[in-house]
């Protein structure tokens, strides 16, 4: 019997994390023996904690708030394109004695949208917010072959700066990617993604009426037990055909980390169903 592989998630706070449950379910499906723990890391001890974890034979780390930017700095010599574009890292591993970093949030969201039977190719996508959550999904969204991606933010200059920075790295998307303030939103959109913290703060966004096209999706990166957030309520009232919270994004980003570490693809759907049930029953 092989010794279990050691994984962990590091953050501060960390008690809320579902990562140990997710990865135990992934491992069970893949037939792998793993240990996966939550590690509360002191704010001044992150870099040392990472070094200690891998020096003791750890195989992979997930990184959450507030350490994603510091994980990016630590793995700066070996970053995936996703991590470079996101400017932050949520997945760390060692390869040939070198620390590597990736950001799986964006591909996790894209795969969760596809799970719901929605193609992103040739779609008009509106991205609300220009902070770290938005930044992490821009490249994966552009790579879907969408027709248009508009980033809007309450402070328009922040959205414009994000788009400008992305286009400096990805000039091939100049005709697809644009940015502005909420007042720049015009017409109807196939997919509207909330990457702001509005739902956490329980307030609505200043969105124009008639925003949603036929067969449209409203997607909130925040999740709740009932798949219902202030943004999703607002979207349903305005005619969104489908509404989804970000629980699937959490599961799919985790499955991408699992694949990076173990080179095994699992089916995230039953894991998502288990997690949703666990949220509902408390």
From TrEMBL:
<dbReference type="InterPro" id="IPR036291">
    <property type="entry name" value="NAD(P)-bd_dom_sf"/>
</dbReference>
<dbReference type="InterPro" id="IPR013708">
    <property type="entry name" value="Shikimate_DH-bd_N"/>
</dbReference>
<feature type="binding site">
    <location>
        <begin position="153"/>
        <end position="158"/>
    </location>
    <ligand>
        <name>NADP(+)</name>
    </ligand>
</feature>
<feature type="binding site">
    <location>
        <position position="105"/>
    </location>
    <ligand>
        <name>shikimate</name>
    </ligand>
</feature>
<feature type="binding site">
    <location>
        <position position="246"/>
    </location>
    <ligand>
        <name>NADP(+)</name>
    </ligand>
</feature>
<protein>
    <recommendedName>
        <fullName>Shikimate dehydrogenase (NADP(+))</fullName>
        <ecNumber>1.1.1.25</ecNumber>
    </recommendedName>
</protein>
<feature type="binding site">
    <location>
        <position position="64"/>
    </location>
    <ligand>
        <name>shikimate</name>
    </ligand>
</feature>
<dbReference type="Pfam" id="PF01488">
    <property type="entry name" value="Shikimate_DH"/>
</dbReference>
<feature type="active site" description="Proton acceptor">
    <location>
        <position position="68"/>
    </location>
</feature>
<comment type="similarity">
    <text>Belongs to the shikimate dehydrogenase family.</text>
</comment>
<dbReference type="GO" id="GO:0004764">
    <property type="term" value="F:shikimate 3-dehydrogenase (NADP+) activity"/>
</dbReference>
<feature type="binding site">
    <location>
        <position position="253"/>
    </location>
    <ligand>
        <name>shikimate</name>
    </ligand>
</feature>
<feature type="binding site">
    <location>
        <position position="221"/>
    </location>
    <ligand>
        <name>NADP(+)</name>
    </ligand>
</feature>
<feature type="binding site">
    <location>
        <position position="90"/>
    </location>
    <ligand>
        <name>shikimate</name>
    </ligand>
</feature>
<dbReference type="InterPro" id="IPR011342">
    <property type="entry name" value="Shikimate_DH"/>
</dbReference>
<dbReference type="InterPro" id="IPR006151">
    <property type="entry name" value="Shikm_DH/Glu-tRNA_Rdtase"/>
</dbReference>
<keyword id="KW-0560">Oxidoreductase</keyword>
<dbReference type="InterPro" id="IPR046346">
    <property type="entry name" value="Aminoacid_DH-like_N_sf"/>
</dbReference>
<dbReference type="InterPro" id="IPR022893">
    <property type="entry name" value="Shikimate_DH_fam"/>
</dbReference>
<feature type="binding site">
    <location>
        <begin position="17"/>
        <end position="19"/>
    </location>
    <ligand>
        <name>shikimate</name>
    </ligand>
</feature>
<feature type="domain" description="Quinate/shikimate 5-dehydrogenase/glutamyl-tRNA reductase">
    <location>
        <begin position="119"/>
        <end position="199"/>
    </location>
</feature>
<keyword id="KW-0028">Amino-acid biosynthesis</keyword>
<feature type="binding site">
    <location>
        <position position="223"/>
    </location>
    <ligand>
        <name>shikimate</name>
    </ligand>
</feature>
<keyword id="KW-0057">Aromatic amino acid biosynthesis</keyword>
<feature type="binding site">
    <location>
        <begin position="129"/>
        <end position="133"/>
    </location>
    <ligand>
        <name>NADP(+)</name>
    </ligand>
</feature>
<feature type="domain" description="Shikimate dehydrogenase substrate binding N-terminal">
    <location>
        <begin position="9"/>
        <end position="92"/>
    </location>
</feature>
<comment type="pathway">
    <text>Metabolic intermediate biosynthesis; chorismate biosynthesis; chorismate from D-erythrose 4-phosphate and phosphoenolpyruvate: step 4/7.</text>
</comment>
<keyword id="KW-0521">NADP</keyword>
<comment type="subunit">
    <text>Homodimer.</text>
</comment>
<comment type="function">
    <text>Involved in the biosynthesis of the chorismate, which leads to the biosynthesis of aromatic amino acids. Catalyzes the reversible NADPH linked reduction of 3-dehydroshikimate (DHSA) to yield shikimate (SA).</text>
</comment>
<dbReference type="Pfam" id="PF08501">
    <property type="entry name" value="Shikimate_dh_N"/>
</dbReference>
């Amino acid at each position: 019997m092989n010794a279990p592989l050691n994984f962990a998630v590091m953050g501060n706070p960390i008690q809320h994390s579902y990562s140990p449950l997710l990865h135990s379910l992934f491992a069970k499906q893949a037939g792998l023996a793993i240990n996966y723990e939550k590690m509360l890391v002191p704010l001044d001890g992150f870099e040392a904690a990472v070094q200690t974890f891998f020096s003791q034979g750890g195989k992979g780390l997930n990184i959450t708030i507030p350490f994603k930017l510091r994980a990016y700095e630590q793995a700066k010599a070996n970053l995936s394109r996703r991590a470079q574009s996101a400017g932050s890292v949520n997945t760390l591993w060692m390869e040939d004695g070198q620390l590597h970093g990736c950001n799986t949030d964006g591909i996790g969201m894209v795969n969760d949208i596809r799970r719901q039977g929605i193609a992103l190719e040739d779609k008009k996508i509106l991205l609300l917010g220009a902070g770290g959550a938005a930044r992490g999904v821009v490249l994966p969204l552009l790579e879907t072959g969408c027709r248009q991606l508009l980033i809007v933010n309450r402070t328009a200059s922040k959205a414009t700066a994000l788009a400008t920075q992305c286009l400096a790295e990805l000039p091939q998307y100049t005709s697809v990617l644009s940015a502005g303030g909420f007042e720049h939103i015009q017409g109807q959109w196939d997919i509207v993604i909330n990457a702001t913290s509005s739902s956490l703060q329980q307030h609505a966004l200043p969105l124009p009426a008639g925003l949603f096209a036929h067969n449209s999706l409203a997607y909130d990166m925040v999740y709740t037990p009932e798949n219902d957030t202030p943004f999703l309520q607002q979207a349903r009232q305005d005619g969104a055909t489908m509404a989804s919270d970000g629980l699937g994004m959490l599961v799919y980003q985790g499955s991408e980390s699992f694949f990076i570490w173990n080179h095994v693809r699992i089916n995230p759907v039953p894991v998502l169903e288990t997690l949703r049930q666990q949220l509902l029953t408390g």
